[in-house]
Amino acid sequence: MITETTVREEHVSAVVDLLLAQETRQYIRDPRLRSARSREQVTAVIRKRLDTGEPSLVALDAHGQVRGYASPAVWQLAETSILRAFLSARNGVARDLTLPDPHDGDAPTVLATLLEALSVWWKSHETTGELIRWSSADPWIVARLAVQGFRLDSVCAIGRPHLTAPDRPPSGIVTRQATPADEEALVDLFAEELLYHERYTPFVRCSPAVLAAFRRKLAHLWAGASLEEGAPLVLVAERGGEIVGMTETTLVAVSSDDEAGFTPPGRYGCIDNVCVREALRGQGLGHLLVQATYDTIDALPLHLNGWLLWYNPDNPQAAHFWPRRGFVPLWTTYQRLHASGEA
Prior knowledge:
By secondary structure, the chain is an alpha+beta fold. It folds into two domains: 3-153, Aminopeptidase; 161-325, Gcn5-related N-acetyltransferase (GNAT) (Aminopeptidase). The chain has helices at 12-29, 39-52, 107-124, 142-147, 183-198, 208-222, 285-298, 316-324; strands at 3-6, 57-60, 66-76, 90-98, 129-135, 151-159, 173-177, 233-239, 242-254, 266-276, 306-311, 328-337. A twelve-stranded mixed β-sheet has the order 1-2-3-4-5-12-6-11-10-9-8-7. The chain is elongated.
């Protein structure tokens, strides 16, 4: 029998043991993850939550032994956030979701118990959807998340800039950096990409608010801000004076204080969008844009530690394109929307 309760002082040491064992286990499965934190680091995180009254849940077995842990929270997105294209407005999250070794007989029950307790907490805080993130190399929870209504949402993947030539290199294509005169074409491409996603996943939504958020990102670029100042690098593919594709890239800095396991600390190029007119997909335009992005970034004194991006595996174009470009899943996010939470 597995029961759930809030974390108390006598649970801290066992929670730390369980969390360190999980981080070590997942790092062995995928050494691209950040290696396990020190006992002191993990203890400080758990104890701070206890001392400040942040919500924390533990799953206990019949002998009172700690078998699982999670700290529920709410991620509220601003009305102006471009992430509303992909997530609900008020998202329940589980910080440091910690489970037994999947070979342990009680692991499925521990997961179910924690998910039920998290769901009660999230419901009391009026979330419109929930997110679970888990190592892509440790997929044993996938079927059990599905029972609780979670669906595959997106993959965070890391890759290296090595590309093979497209099978049919397109002719007459010029790639260049975008200018303010391109804004309407860029917004139209972004909207077309989102609408294509909508065919395959319930989690992507194109809306006037999301397109307005994209325009604000472009405005930051048009104002002269650099990549290091948070502006995107936007390249376009042009044929005969018509913009037929674009790519948008930003910088992501990961510090040693960020959530453990995301990536090792460093600076990463993040490919946020690759958009190609639907009638021209599969002809190498995306390949040329990604290569142009690599070349442009390489010419800058940025000293990147790697490249990362998020893609939706349910999108057949993305699922085919990114693995062929050397991007391997690192973290997988599962999302659950409330029927009444999103219009």
